């Protein structure tokens, strides 16, 4: 199923503000899907030869933005290399094709747009680096930084890419951005609640074993516990820690016995 996210887009005030012929983004998405599945993009060429490769809808979305956001790498390559689409056009929300590619983590598309000369910083609110950091796309963050993205750029909340990574707890990105900025990254600040807790090994209290599990009828008396050979009537199943679990039935009750050496305890 195709899904277009219109983050950053706001409806333009009047049709006169739209550029060129209005396009249908959802119709374009269906066209991209069909031609990508077929591996034949002649219908994409035909569409933009008729419509205009830089035409947009009334939200300012261009065909290149749609392809970049939905991850159609071959369509993006066709549009920027062959059809010469403008990679720096922005919609009403100041988002460019590069912003959408970075936001969705499409590294190949981001690389193609950068190689074509796309503006790496765009607008503070639509900064590709900030959006890649917020959405936890480390490979895209690295790609943008290598393209000289401004790591200290802030949005309207006064937050940088690093600030967003900290807020969203994207630790790999935090470590990377700290490293390239020469900031000490204190791993001990990582919340302990995110660390898996070690499971406690079950302990057998031998002092309680005799009161929990009485010897079966016919078993020899033992001051600590019953005869192990009489406790189980099903073959024991080895546990990870060397304990053995076995089902037993005694005195009209049914349960599970855990054995440590000569000690048998009931687990309810």
Description:
- Helices cover 39% and strands 8% of the residues.
- It is α+β, with helices and mostly antiparallel strands and 268 residues long.
- It folds into 2 domains: 15-194, Ankyrin repeat-containing domain (Serine Threonine Protein Phosphatase 5, Tetratricopeptide repeat), CATH 1.25.40; 206-267, no CATH class.
- The chain is elongated and about 60 Å long.
- The two termini are 49 Å apart.
Question: Which key phrases capture this entry?
Answer:
12 helices; alpha+beta; ANKRD_45/46/60; 268 residues; 2 domains
The CATH H-level homologous superfamily of the largest domain: Ankyrin repeat-containing domain
Low-confidence stretches: 7-20, 192-198, 228-234, 237-268
Q: Strand order of the main beta sheet, please?
A: 1-2-3-4
Helix content: 25-40%
Q: CATH topology of the largest domain, anyone?
A: Serine Threonine Protein Phosphatase 5, Tetratricopeptide repeat
Counting helices, strands and paired strands, the structural category is alpha+beta
Task: Produce a short descriptive summary.
This protein is α+β, with helices and mostly antiparallel strands and about 270 residues long.
Which helices and strands occur, and which strands form pairs?
Layout: H1 25-38, H2 42-51, H3 63-70, H4 73-82, H5 97-103, H6 107-115, H7 128-134, H8 138-146, H9 161-168, H10 171-181, H11 206-212, H12 228-231, E1 237-238, E2 244-250, E3 253-260, E4 263-267
Antiparallel strand pairs: 1-2, 2-3, 3-4
InterPro entries: ANKRD_45/46/60 (IPR039323), Ankyrin_rpt (IPR002110), Ankyrin_rpt-contain_sf (IPR036770)
Pfam families: Ank_2 (PF12796)
Keywords: ANK repeat
